[in-house]
UniProtKB/TrEMBL annotation:
Catalysed reactions, as listed in the record: [(1->4)-alpha-D-glucosyl](n) + phosphate = [(1->4)-alpha-D-glucosyl](n-1) + alpha-D-glucose 1-phosphate
Necessary cofactors: pyridoxal 5'-phosphate
PANTHER family on file: GLYCOGEN PHOSPHORYLASE (PTHR11468), GLYCOGEN PHOSPHORYLASE, LIVER FORM (PTHR11468:SF3)
Gene source species: Oceaniovalibus guishaninsula JLT2003
Pfam families linked: Phosphorylase (PF00343)
GO cellular component: cytoplasm
GO biological process: glycogen catabolic process
Superkingdom, taxonomy of origin: Bacteria
EC number: 2.4.1.1
PTM sites of type N6-(pyridoxal phosphate)lysine: K647
Cross-referenced Gene3D superfamilies: Glycogen Phosphorylase B
Known role: Allosteric enzyme that catalyzes the rate-limiting step in glycogen catabolism, the phosphorolytic cleavage of glycogen to produce glucose-1-phosphate, and plays a central role in maintaining cellular and organismal glucose homeostasis.
UniProt name for this protein: Alpha-1,4 glucan phosphorylase
Localisation: Cytoplasm
């Protein structure tokens, strides 16, 4: 949309000289003694140098155009590695590959040396990362705001099949992408008391920490534009207490610093329930308050009329985690800038919008009034005022922002936003009918849908170079920033030569993955069907349905090993929240089944289960290009959108899935005949839940299901402790909240349909080509354009 500078051009010799210069002068290393990390850091510095100019130019262009800016507030940014993204978007990959080949440094090893920045749990954080990249590609002036966690998501390993968590230390090496901004620091208060003063109030916090900014440039496709990810670190207001130290109180001298730094110490390892409530609320307020002050400071430097705020500032709240932004912005405008309360509320609402990510009631945030009053006393008062104002405008309303002794962050976020969006068609529809039914009736224009998307630069161009090359050869490279051009591939689904080339790419990717898995000790045959389920482990995502079907299939294979079976490699990946007992049991069971099946001499050539540890963005980038079958099997109505499902379809995997989240849209677009649908829809799920003994009925009607459950219960996968997994079987046969038993029979049927389709390799390849050709709509560029038009009213620079 906007070109700040032309795409960067590079000369190989010049680039090589830049890398060597950084090796010598930035790292103090001699080329003869440089280790892989030294090369990687020198390379990163040389790449970074090429980002800074377009980055400055983008900032200057935004000021010059007096453009509306988009601010994306998110507790999580699951950005992964940055080096490969940067060289791809800058057009440096080929040149860099040649430079390191000349230098005798293995380029793949070098790229993999970079730590994976896991400042997020899963889909919500990855969405934020894809959005930042698309905002830069589209040339929209934007900032991402979040927390610079010292420890991102934990590292997962397995000990005898059980999940072990260790801290992730992504900052243990020099983090070259960020620039510290000591001048951009704000004091953030907690607790204390409030004195009414005139129209407003004066809040005197009891405790203050400093939010200090670290900026990472995010470069868009072809380096034309770069935005900023600004992450806040918590620091003590006063440095080290030398007086106490000199008195011999060494621990006491360091205590205030440790207390302050705790706020940005760890990412909460769970995105559906909240842990240490007080600290979590502190984190939320900390980064939201710092971001809003930064936004107002930037606004004040350009304009002197606060009424212009909604025309110049769009603030997107990624879930309710930053929902305290509503009362905080009202506080800043009303208490600190003297705007009348009603006008402050309207002005704040004009800037704010909110993305809902879940309908699971246990995942909707609420904070006790006593905690809120203790930590944020003025905000609690303002929430009461905001709620009262809403009640006055809508006297018949029964929904409130405070209820049952809790502040309800969903209704608060809704009430303070001019737009609220769901993340897939089905999810938005259910939002209107369930969680926000009454608010939707009162504000029928407020809810809009923006189906999620993924950036094609990372999830196709970078992750799957073979397929990218084939596509570009066939239709040119316009698809990279206009993904719907993949439709030009459609006619080639009927071209046997193209299908064969497409299949050869998949086969080569499978071989690469087999080599990688072998390094971790898992042997798989790339001739088998690669069937993959990777995502957080959660009951609603139903990894236990998948493993149960795997067990049933294994039992049938043992009954008749010489039947015409389709060999399969079942791959699982994902972490469980450390406190989520049942999810950890599921991990343990999958690993136990893996051990039993992979060593079964009768079936191990037909069916294998592998579970590489520590699923993260980098592992996703390895697995997805090699997938043939994508497992998207959540209980209908529970997965808001999913984005993993999109990455798979784009890379030519066929989906087996329920009518849930964006699966619905994927199936509509790729065609029902190229998608394996099974299971109850969301309405049937609700009806089924009301039937007493629904699981018993399902088990009584399906002997395969009964037999698979019996194997779990009888200790077939836990010879040393036959009751180890009985809890899982009892859960499925008992409460079965997510209807594993009730959907099993149809899942089994759909899996046999998958095998039937796979036997016809040519037909399968045709469907795979069509999955890629018809997935263009799932680009996050399309999603961002939707937000710009329907939520932010931000046309971007060129159109202004
Ligand atoms: C895309 C992605 C997710 C989201 O996956 P879903 O299947 O949509 O839940 C989670 N984690 C990582 C590392 C991802 O890349």
């Amino acid at each position: 949309m906007m070109t700040a500078t032309p795409a960067v051009r590079v000369d190989k010799d010049e680039f090589r000289a830049a890398v060597l210069r950084h090796l010598t002068y930035s790292l103090g290393k001699d080329a003869d003694h440089a280790q892989i990390t030294d090369w990687r850091l020198a390379f990163s510095f040389a790449v970074r140098d090429r980002i800074v100019d377009p980055w400055f130019a983008s900032t200057r262009a935004s000021y010059a155009a007096q453009a509306k800016r988009v601010y994306y507030l998110s507790m999580e940014f699951l950005i992964g590695r940055l080096l490969e993204d940067a060289i791809i978007n800058l057009g440096l990959r080929d040149v860099a590959g040649e430079v390191f080949a000349d230098l005798g440094v293995d380029f793949e090893t070098l790229l993999e040396d970079e730590p994976d920045a896991a400042l997020g749990n899963g889909g919500l954080g990855r969405l934020a990362a894809c959005f930042l990249e698309s905002l830069s590609t589209l040339g929209v002036p934007a900032y991402g705001y979040g927390i610079r966690y010292e420890h991102g998501l934990f590292r997962q390993s397995f000990d005898k099949g059980r999940q072990i968590e260790t801290p992730e230390d992504w900052l243990h090496q020099r983090h070259v992408w960020e620039f510290e901004r000591p001048e951009a620091a704000f004091r953030i208060g907690f607790g204390g008391n409030v004195a009414l003063a005139g129209q407003g109030a004066v809040w005197t916090p009891a405790e203050t920490v400093v939010a200090s900014a670290f900026d990472t440039p995010v470069i868009g496709w072809q380096g034309r534009w770069a935005n900023t990810l600004r992450l806040w670190a918590a620091e003590p207001e006063h440095g080290f207490d030398l007086a106490r130290f000199n008195q011999g109180d060494y621990a006491g001298a360091a205590a205030p610093e440790a207390a302050a730094r705790t706020i940005s110490r760890v990412l909460y390892p769970d995105d559906t329930t909240d842990g240490g409530k007080r600290l979590r609320l502190k984190q939320e307020y900390f980064f939201t308050a710092a971001s809003l002050r930064d936004i107002l400071r930037r606004f004040d430097s350009e304009y002197n009329d606060l009424r212009l705020l909604p025309r110049k500032v769009a603030i997107q709240l990624n879930d309710t985690h930053p929902a305290i932004a509503g009362p905080e912005l009202v506080r800043l405008l009303h208490d600190e800038k003297g705007m009348a309360l009603d006008e402050a509320i309207a002005t704040a609402r004009g800037c704010l919008s909110y993305t809902n990510h879940t309908l699971l009631p246990e995942a909707l945030e609420r904070w006790s009034e006593s905690l809120m009053g203790d930590l944020l006393p003025r905000h609690l008062q303002l929430i009461e005022r905001i709620d009262a104002a809403h009640a006055k405008d809508h006297p018949t309303r029964s929904v409130t922002m405070i209820g049952g002794g809790d502040v309800l962050m969903g209704p608060l976020a809704f009430g303070m936003a001019h737009r609220v969006n769901g993340v897939s068609g089905l999810h938005t529809d259910l939002m209107k009918k369930t969680v926000f039914a009454e608010l939707h009736r009162l504000h029928p224009e407020r809810i809009v849908n923006q189906t999620n998307g993924v950036t094609p630069r990372r999830w196709l161009l970078a992750a799957n170079p073979r397929l990218s090359g084939l596509i570009t050869e066939a239709i040119g490279d316009g698809w990279i920033d206009d993904l719907e051009r993949l439709a030009d591939l459609e006619p080639m689904a009927d071209d046997a030569g193209f299908r064969a080339a497409f299949a050869a790419v998949k086969r080569a990717n499978k071989e690469d993955l087999a080599t990688f898995l072998a390094q971790g000790g898992a042997e798989v045959d790339p001739a088998g069907m690669f069937d993959i389920q990777i995502k957080r482990i959660h009951e609603y995502k139903r990894q236990h349905l998948n493993i149960l079907e795997t067990i049933a299939l294994w039992q049938e294979m043992r009954d008749d090993p010489h039947a015409d079976w389709v060999p399969r490699v079942k791959i699982f990946g994902g972490k469980a929240a450390p406190g989520y007992f049942f999810a950890k049991e599921i991990i343990h069971l999958i690993n136990a089944v893996s051990e039993t099946l992979n060593s079964d001499p009768v079936t191990s050539h037909l069916l294998r289960v592998v579970y590489p540890a520590n699923y993260n963005v980098s592992l996703a980038e390895r697995l997805i290009p090699a997938a043939e079958l994508s497992e998207q099997i959540s209980t209908a109505g529970k997965e808001a959108s999913g984005t993993g499902n999109m990455k798979f379809a784009l890379n030519g995997a066929l989906t087996i899935g329920t009518l849930d989240g964006a699966n619905v849209e994927i199936r509509d677009l790729v065609g029902a005949e190229n998608f394996f649908l099974f299971g109850m829809d969301a309405a049937a799920v609700e009806d089924r839940r009301k039937i007493a003994g629904h699981a018993d009925h399902a088990i009584a009607a399906d002997s395969r299901l009964a037999r698979a459950l019996a194997a779990i219960r009888d200790g077939v996968f836990s010879r040393d402790d036959s009751r180890r997994f009985a809890g899982i079987a009892d859960n499925i046969a008992g409460e079965d909240k997510f209807l594993v038993a009730s959907d099993f029979t149809d899942y089994w049927r759909a899996q046999r349909e998958v095998e039937q389709a796979y036997r016809d390799q040519d037909g399968w390849n045709r469907a795979a080509v069509l999955n890629t050709a018809r997935s263009g709509w799932f680009s996050s560029d399309r999603t961002i354009r939707g937000y710009m038009a329907e939520i932010w009213d931000a046309p971007g620079i060129a159109a202004e």
